[in-house]
Amino acid sequence: MDERIKIYLLTALPLFFWSSQILAQKNTRINSLAQKLGAYVNNLAPEKVYIQTDKDFYIVGDTIWFKSYLVNGVTHFASDKSNIVHVELLDANGGMLVKRKLYTDNGSAFGDIEIDDSITEGDYRIRAYTRYMLNDEDLVLFEKKISILARPMTINDKYKSVGLVNAEKEKKQEREVRNSQMSKPNVQFFPEGGNLVIGLQSELGLKITDEFGNGLAMKGHIFDQKGNLINSFQTYNFGIGVFPFTPKTGTNYYAELNIGGIVHRYSLPMALDKGYVIQLKNHGSQIIIKVSSNIDQGLTGTLVLGHLRGEIFLKHSKINSSKSSYLIKFPTSELSDGVAHFTLFNQQGEPICERLTFIDNPENEIDLTLTTDRSDYKFREKVDLNLSIADTQGKPLQGDFSISVALDKSFDKNDSNIKGWFLLNSDMGNTVENPYYFFGEDSNFRKKLLDILMLTHGWRRFVWKSFLLNESSRPLEYLPEKGVMINGVTRAFNNRNQPIKALTTLSILGQDVYQEKRLTDAQGRFSFGPLVFLDSVEAIINASSSILGKNENKKISIYLDTVKTKVNIDSLTTQESYKNTFPIQEELIKEYRAKVSDLEYSPRVNALSEVIVKAKKKNRKESIEEELNKMTVYGTAQNRIIPDSIPGRTSRTVFDVLTQVPGVQVLGTFPNQNVRIRGMNSFSSSGDPLFLKDGVPVSANFVQSTALNDVLFVDILKGGEAAFYGSRGTNGVVAIYTDSGQSFESGLKEQPGVANFVIPGFYKAREFYHPNYGGKKTYHKISDHRTTLYWNPEVIITEKTKTNLNFYTGDLPGNYTLRLEGVTSDGKLVSKQYSFNIHN
């Protein structure tokens, strides 16, 4: 064999095996990463919440009407994890003022918050989240700013607000000081892909801000260390810009800004001698990626992986390449809209370059028609609204939407919408200053600016290091909430550290009594739920150890778990700057004064003359009886038990004292006891009386475990008294009334084996009222100064071609905005506005 061939084989074969081994290791690691992303999408996908409100500016006395949308953070379908959304109203310092707990089984829920007189004037925030979202190390929760106006006053014949007038004056002075004494701007540089590399061209993004973080639109130049002009640049909205740049060996560079004759210089990032660069061009319907390296054979074994919210759509590997660059072209026609993430991996499977871009697939466009029958209306005229939605092929779409119609100046033009939040800001760490801007009118400039934004912001939800180190599979601290869970533990009555295994019974009071039994584990733990209630309900848990086959019935204490969710508010609160302030809304102040005027001069409000009432003062017993009779529907009762007068009531139950009433007998022993009332049927009959708790029918099992100390009074009705309840009172009535804040002696003490408590239910939204001026009614004479004319959170669109809605205008002239938002059944996001005018 030729000696040269021998030498080649001896050197090439080890290199081949080494390369194969490296590629195998790399493929194993990439496949593992792909599997983890798949598991993330299928099992650990995040949740996202968005809130639409009826408007953005309110006055004291208004109601904030809102709807929440809860979706899977990857697909934007309705989330199948959580069924509970927490909505909070926060003050400027992050303190929680109001909380609403909403239940949803289809991804959406709606509610309302009344703004009472205790609310002071200023800026507030609405925050929404699920407990499952709190598992994220870096919380990205939805927050929306609203402004509340109060205390109107007259200034130069115009109504303004004391607090906001002063704030407006201070901020105007502050702006003047800032403009006249601008300090050195802050400049940040963002090399495309992550690093500048000697001899390789890439895009260099930059962001210029003032000391308060406000973006600055400026022009500047790039010079080398010898003062030679290399390039010029310009920043636009939000202070962001980009320019092409190729660093050279042994050369340093700096950017220069000239502000009023004062020159500021900033050093550019140092370039790597050897490395990789990834460049991306987004043409809307097509993406072009260029991968470059100045390392010999550096592109061999590299892989470009692209994913959108965790779903992989691109895996392009280069098994062998002697070139310094290669191109990847692919269409976006099959992709969803949103932030796409491209990563370049080296031979060892390590991420070395990253690039973000926003996918705006033309195939995902929605043809939404939102019109009224006219563009101009007079006071109190009917408005017919036509709505239709279809895909690009004209096929009608289904979805869940909400509509608000309010005075145009009630809306903040810079506020986010459902597309800006779900597609952009929620995946960019809530750092995009005005996401609505990028989803306004369609223009090439906005698309270009959005691509620059991708260069100057980091990715929040995906950190490759975490995935590679299995940190993404850490145990969840907060499980998805499906409903109300009632958890607790049973312990020895006199020793909280001694667990007692027991049979627990949960009894929930309502129109119908609901009971459920659970056997605790060896440590005394029990759990009931998930349960769903609108409004709060009273409940009792009983625990007994005698049913476990032992004669001894140990005294048991029941301890319920308390679950308090605390959100790290400090990390979410952003500093407000002058550019985020808004002008005084004069129409809102007029509305406030109109409401006050209507109250003062309305013919429906009558002033009463002073009346002097003389009566004999009742003694304490008579006063108590009178108050108790007010609580019943039948008045007084011949046989009434008031526990206040019974010695040792803290250790007795209702059944224990029923035997003190003539003609009442309690048969059996706990927990199998029955009550018979003489005169209704014989004691030998099997008919239990009707048991009532605060007027609601309950079972005998429930009553026998009710501690007497929790009872205000008990009425035993027999004969004609029981006739009030008809056939249900055939066997008599035992009516129990609990202490609901009217007790004449306060103080509840712990009872063995019994725990009484109230289960806070989910908030039940009120119905938005909008008048019908189609006929003559007395209320038509009252002035109608509503700034929100219409709010409908339940616009469910089916495959019908059109949906028709209607409402009436009020007495407040001006331009009005109709805002529709929602999600289609296939996860497409919809946001649309329409304007019309009202005049006298």
From TrEMBL:
Q: Name one GO cellular component term.
A: cell outer membrane
Q: Give the location in the cell.
A: Cell outer membrane
* Residues of the TonB-dependent receptor plug domain: 644-733
Task: Look up keyword Transport and say if it applies.
Answer: yes
**GO terms for molecular function, please?**
siderophore uptake transmembrane transporter activity
Q: What biological processes does GO assign it?
A: siderophore transmembrane transport
One Pfam annotation reads: Plug
Q: Where are the transmembrane segments?
A: none
**Alphabetically ordered keywords of this record:** Cell outer membrane, Membrane, Signal, Transmembrane, Transmembrane beta strand, Transport
Q: Which domain of life is it from?
A: Bacteria
- The keyword Transcription is annotated on this UniProt entry: no
- The primary site where this protein sits is membrane
Q: How does it sit in the membrane?
A: Multi-pass membrane protein
Q: Which family does it belong to?
A: Belongs to the TonB-dependent receptor family.
State the name under which the record lists this protein: MG2 domain-containing protein
Supply the source organism for this entry: Arenibacter troitsensis
